[in-house]
Every structure is written in C-alpha cells, then in structure tokens.
Amino acid sequence: MILAHPTRITEICEGSLTAEDGTLRLELDSTSLGRSGTAKLVTALGRSIRLSGDTIDYTLRMAAVGEPLQHHLAATLRRD
After folding, report:
1. What does the longest C-alpha to C-alpha distance in the chain come to?
2. Are 45 and 29 in contact (CB under 8 A)?
3. Alpha-carbon distance 80 to 75, whole Å?
4. Count of CB atoms within 10 A of residue 34's CB?
5. How does the average pLDDT of the chain come out, rounded?
6. Taking the chain, what is the end-to-end CA distance rounded to the nearest angstrom?
7. Among residues of the chain, what percentage have pLDDT more than 70?
8. What is residue 2's predicted lDDT score, i.e. its pLDDT?
9. CA angle 60, 64, 70 (to 5 degrees)
10. What is the pLDDT of residue 58?
11. What is the Rg, in whole angstroms, of the alpha carbon atoms belonging to the chain?
12. What is the dihedral of CA 54, 20, 69, 57, to 10 degrees?
C-alpha cells in the first residue's frame, strides 16, 4: 500500500492478508518513509485492519520524534 499523508509524509507498506471464518485481517508495516523538510521525524508505521461483517477495526502504531514503535490510535467503523 502506498499513502501520501497531509502531514507531509509518504509511506510504502507491505504485509499480509488472511481470511478466516468470514473475517479478513490485514497486517502492514512500513518499508519506506519519505518526508518534507518540515514534517515531523516518523521512523516506522504499522497498521492492523480487521473486517468482520459490517465492522472494520483499525489500529495504527508509530515510531516518531525519538519514541519507539507504539500504539498511536484506533478506530471502529460500523455500517448501519
């Protein structure tokens, strides 16, 4: 997956897709990060995305500004 963020960071991620019992799981880790001269220093990103029925669970891990890779944010989206 290739992403361009509004925070002046670009990201290339690679990972795996698994399907089990009607649930899709995508695990991604950054393999290349680019940034403008004014962007914060992000050194690693990782994502977990799970689709089960009408629900998507998403978590983001980030290493930035001298901090190690750690949980950064999470969201759950439900279709009504």
Report:
1. 45
2. yes
3. 16
4. 12
5. 96
6. 28
7. 100
8. 96
9. 45
10. 97
11. 14
12. 10
Predicted local distance difference test score (pLDDT) of residue 80: 87
Residue that wins the pLDDT comparison between 80 and 63: 63
Residues 6 or more apart in contact with residue 16 via CB below 8 angstroms: 26, 27
Q: What is the DSSP letter of 66?
A: T
Q: Which region holds residue 21: left if phi is over 0, alpha if psi is between -120 and 50, else beta?
A: left
Tell me the one-letter amino acid at 11: E
Round to whole Å and give the CA distance between 80 and 64.
Answer: 36
Extract the tokens encoding 54. Answer: 């009408």
Q: What is the Cα–Cα distance from 32 to 41, expressed in whole angstroms? A: 13
What is the residue type of 12?
I
Summarize the confidence of residues 60-65 as an average pLDDT. Answer: 96
Banded pLDDT at 8 (limits 50, 70, 90)? very high
Residue with tokens 């914060």: 40
